[in-house]
């Protein structure tokens, strides 16, 4: 592809060389430079691509994209832009033939609910006969291919490459998680979202190499509503007007409160044999009853978000109802049937805020006992351990403290920190270091009416110990325990 074609939608200055050249590859990783490529100099947190500009030229790069002066010799074209990450998004889109234009692109941003909602949307649309690609925290899904995720929102080149594969596979739509980091680093430039969704906002991702303040975090989330055709926002969240400030899209709202375009009403908790869920009525832009097989108010929000999106695809009410009831998201309030007498679930809740939300929701079901099984990651904040211990001690009837990903710490030391937090409460607890044995204890001692939560690991299928990832999937562990019981 010609340099001019790749730069068609960008403002730039040609500092040296000719624009009349064909490019063999687009590269932003200096280790992947090949003869005739266009090398984009990215300024990262730990490495600046401009520092290897001269090396790129000697390796045969035909063009360099920079945002500051570089000294290079030979027949290499140097193009200066204001921001190389921004430029990379447009160059990547052009390189792959603007694949986003061939599908409907749905982008979901917010602190919580992104992952679950993407899978709900995929389930509903596929139930209605659409072919849907998915990009998110857990994985990228293209047809039958599941690619483990590195970032929630991939680098723009990887994103466009995924779009191209999805378009080639015949996808009608793509549903993706859009992180504030992804927006801040221009990973989602180069195309326009058909639908941009805001779920909710809480202080998160604030610190070194992330966001300098909550205000910046909100502003980055808000960029989505300057990059989409239709914005769909949770109007119950107190931050929604700040997040959508300066929006350039058509705007719709959803929520529980009066005034929302799509409103959830008459919420009821649903209990069954070893199962719990929630039912509610949808009013406003649609008029229908819905039931989902996951618990609580946040499950209603996730389902309502998915409904607000999928109504734009003219999915029948029957298809929506059927898909929502059947949908399962790995590691997100994932109910695993082990008994008719008690309920067991796996959830990714790995900080105090998430654990408090989950346990608080489950208490509304008035279980005989609420049993919390969790550990904390090694080489991470000790404060998280104290807080999670305190939350579990206050809300659970029994806490089983175990190991998570100890990394380079001793599991016993991490567990001792959790105990420090739990001892601020009157909560009962036991310590079982081996996670499989902790899960076995919870299942073998389950009482009628109990709700047991395995928290922290969620979708993860490994345990990280001293730099090694050992296979460990809680679904497999539960299956082994049940088999051993027989």
Structural write-up:
There is one protein chain. This protein is an alpha/beta fold and 486 residues long. It has three domains: 3-95, MurE/MurF, N-terminal domain (Udp-n-acetylmuramoylalanyl-d-glutamate--2,6- Diaminopimelate Ligase, Chain: A, domain 1, 3-Layer(aba) Sandwich); 99-326, Mur-like, catalytic domain (UDP-N-acetylmuramoyl-L-alanine:D-glutamate ligase), CATH 3.40.1190.10; 334-485, Mur ligase, C-terminal domain (Protein-Tyrosine Phosphatase, Chain A, Alpha-Beta Complex). It has helices at residues 3-6, 53-58, 84-95, 114-127, 156-168, 180-184, 214-222, 240-243, 297-310, 317-326, 352-363, 382-395, 411-422, 435-444, 474-485; strands spanning 13-16, 26-27, 38-40, 63-66, 77-80, 104-109, 132-135, 139-142, 145-148, 173-177, 193-198, 228-234, 250-255, 262-272, 275-284, 288-292, 334-335, 343-347, 370-374, 398-401, 428-431, 451-455, 462-465, 468-471. The strands form four sheets. An eleven-stranded mixed sheet has the order 9-8-7-10-6-11-12-13-14-15-16, with helices on both faces. It has a six-stranded mixed sheet with strand order 17-18-22-19-20-21, with helices on both faces. It has a five-stranded mixed sheet with strand order 1-5-4-3-2. The longest helix is centred in the N-terminal third of the chain and has 14 residues, at 114-127. It is globular and about 75 Å long. The mean pLDDT is 95.
